[in-house]
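Tutorial handout. Part one gives the primary structure; part two gives the three-dimensional structure as tokens.
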Amino acid sequence: MNYALSVEEYILALTLVGAEEAAFSIKEEIFADISEQELEARLDSATNGLLAKNLLLIDGEEEIVDHEFKTFLLSLLNTPRVVRCQIADGTSLITASAFCGDTYKIQQTFYQDRVFRFWDNVPIDQLGTYLHLTDRGESNSELLVSEPLFDGVIDSLLEGKMLSDEDKDLFPSDFLAALINKEGRLNTLFDYQFKSDKVTVTTQLYITDNGQSWSIEQDKDSIQIKSLSIDSLFKKGQPIK
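Part two.
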């Protein structure tokens, strides 16, 4: 079961299934600067879009969301864990989220087109493809680097400058190659866990290249670099509680 929705269709669908808070959050994130009149016109167009995709039925004055589609949307809102990744892939920016419940669901959005793509029942061994993470870590070794030195390397790469030998000596060759190949662009991972009325969020930077992924986290005045993988985020195919 796969879906592709424009952002307007997604906002409207969430509103129709009673998820007004989630719809408002997306609206504020993407359409904060447009007028209510323009937004209303966009949502009118979204109605036609959902009708054309057979995800919405109008019966008199009643708007009825397709039952299977409604069940899918509500399942996204009632998951105990969401892993959301902001991925800097060349000139594009991708947001990919894994909704971790009884099964794994994926939502992916490309910044350029703002189309929300959804996949249901995604096998755990395919999550890495969407989240830009390797399946298994290559090493358990950890590295600590001074935060100012690390930031200086990233700034140099983002500005297209050559690294000095001293900069290169800070890192193992495989991690250094990843930084250079990605031109200093780092991804961000947000791990949301929902328990009762409490939400905990952990955040880390990461980078993936040549079949390896590394997490990049602040540790006091240093940057800790260590192996990251789907295996380290998820355990035996189930969300970590």
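Part three, for discussion. Residues 1-78 form one domain. The chain has nine helices and twelve strands.
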